[in-house]
């Protein structure tokens, strides 16, 4: 095999097995940062040895065994082989590579550690994609439109923060479970929404980032199969992802929902999303915020056109979501649904009386929606003014061009 073949093989093994390798090591050494460093050293050794020796039959076991030996050697060099380390070293030495079988709970613990509230949100996202998603620093740099050194520093700081805070490698206590799981879901959804509608850069969306979020969501749903909101998030991401092919035209320009060719929507993903949403209901614990958003996406997925969409039902779902989240973006989305279910005049009144515009002062969303509604009401000059304001607040190049085209059309 060529060096390129070996590197692709290593990348594939890491993407598939990386989280379980790090989880297994973290269970042994008790430190996620140290475990990830050991795993990377094993990857480096694989790149050196596999071109001559070939890819092992059980590559994940090989990498885990090498990383364990590195841990033992490091402890010996540091003359720290006390009773505790002697016990760990003996246990590691006695485990054959063929016996390597990561415990599902180990990966779940890894997810909770990577999303620990002691970390800032950008660090949670980077560390989650790194140690759970298996992305390289080069891939992360491309995804976040930044440099490799910046990503490396972010991950190193995250590891140091976890170590300084003495964050244990364990799942949260039962009383902490809802809050911590919500944090994990929030990180995964943040990754997805950035992929679905990029906040900066020159592209309308970043499908590879959204795909990573969906993959993480599927992993988490397998780890905690009885948690309805995990399945709700997966359903939402499946349904939203189904539109990707139709959201960009042949010229690479964004295509808004009203103009999309629904024949290009991925029916397989829609079926999976609807089935997952049905599974949420079978759990019998009601729909949370993610499942409610999935229900809204399901209304779009089932409709043959914008006009055939059950907008009245969408308004009702948004009202329920609004009560649960108290999120001004949810209220703004309800405004858009009201414009379709009732009238632009009703929607504009709702925007002016119910949307907390102060919380969205730095966002392009409010002037964008107000501009659309004013245009529908024939108040062209006011609409132009609002849309120009939205352009000023937009950091994404494609979104800015869409708004500029609307201004030109007026």
TrEMBL record:
Q: Which residues belong to any copy of the DUF6596 domain? A: 180-279
Q: Which InterPro entries match?
A: DUF6596 (IPR046531), RNA_pol_sigma-70_dom (IPR014284), RNA_pol_sigma70_ECF_CS (IPR000838), RNA_pol_sigma70_r2 (IPR007627), RNA_pol_sigma70_r4_t2 (IPR013249), RNA_pol_sigma_r2 (IPR013325), RNA_pol_sigma_r3/r4-like (IPR013324), WH-like_DNA-bd_sf (IPR036388)
Domain RNA polymerase sigma-70 region intervals: 19-80
Note the superkingdom of the native organism: Bacteria
List, for all copies, the residue spans of the domain called RNA polymerase sigma factor 70 region 4 type: 113-162
Alphabetic keyword roster: DNA-binding, Sigma factor, Transcription, Transcription regulation
Q: Which PANTHER family match?
A: BLL6612 PROTEIN, BLL6612 PROTEIN-RELATED
Record family assignment: Belongs to the sigma-70 factor family. ECF subfamily.
Q: What is this protein called?
A: RNA polymerase sigma factor
Q: Which organism is it from?
A: Gordonia prachuapensis
Q: Kindly list the organism's lineage.
A: Bacteria, Bacillati, Actinomycetota, Actinomycetes, Mycobacteriales
């Amino acid at each position: 095999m060529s060096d390129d073949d070996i590197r692709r093989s290593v990348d594939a093994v890491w993407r598939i097995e990386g989280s379980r390798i790090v989880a297994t090591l973290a269970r042994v050494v008790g430190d996620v940062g140290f475990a990830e460093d050991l795993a990377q050293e094993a990857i480096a050794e694989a790149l050196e040895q596999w071109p001559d020796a070939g890819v092992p039959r059980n590559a994940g076991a090989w990498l885990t065994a090498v990383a364990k030996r590195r841990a033992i050697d490091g402890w010996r060099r540091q003359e720290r082989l006390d009773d505790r380390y002697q016990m760990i070293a003996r246990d590691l030495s006695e485990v054959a590579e063929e016996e390597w079988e990561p415990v599902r709970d180990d990966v779940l613990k890894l997810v909770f550690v990577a999303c620990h509230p002691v970390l800032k949100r950008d660090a949670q996202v980077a560390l989650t994609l790194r140690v759970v998603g298996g992305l390289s620093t080069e891939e992360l740099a491309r995804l976040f439109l930044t440099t490799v050194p910046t990503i490396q520093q972010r991950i190193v700081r995250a590891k140091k923060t976890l170590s300084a805070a003495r964050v244990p490698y364990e799942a949260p206590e039962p009383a902490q479970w809802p809050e911590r799981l919500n944090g994990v879901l929030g990180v995964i959804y943040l990754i997805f929404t950035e992929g679905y509608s990029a906040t900066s850069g020159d592209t309308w969306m970043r499908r590879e980032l959204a795909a990573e979020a969906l993959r993480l969501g599927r992993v988490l749903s397998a780890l905690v199969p009885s948690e309805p909101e995990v399945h709700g998030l997966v359903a939402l991401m499946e349904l939203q992802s189904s539109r990707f092919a139709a959201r960009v035209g042949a010229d690479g320009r964004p295509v808004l929902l009203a103009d999309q060719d629904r024949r290009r929507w991925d029916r397989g993903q829609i079926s999976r999303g609807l089935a997952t949403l049905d599974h949420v209901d079978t759990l019998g614990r009601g729909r949370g915020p993610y499942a409610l958003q999935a229900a809204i996406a399901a209304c779009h997925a089932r409709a043959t056109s914008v006009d055939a969409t059950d907008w009245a039902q969408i308004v009702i779902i948004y009202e329920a979501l609004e009560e649960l989240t108290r999120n001004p973006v949810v209220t703004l989305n309800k405004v858009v649904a009201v414009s379709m279910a009732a009238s632009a005049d009703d929607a504009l009144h709702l925007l002016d009386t119910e949307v907390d515009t102060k919380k969205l002062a730095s966002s392009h969303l409010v002037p964008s929606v107000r501009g659309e509604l004013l245009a529908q009401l024939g108040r062209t000059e006011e609409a132009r003014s609002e849309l120009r304001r939205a352009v000023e607040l937009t950091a994404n190049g494609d979104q800015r061009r869409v708004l500029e085209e609307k201004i030109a059309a007026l």
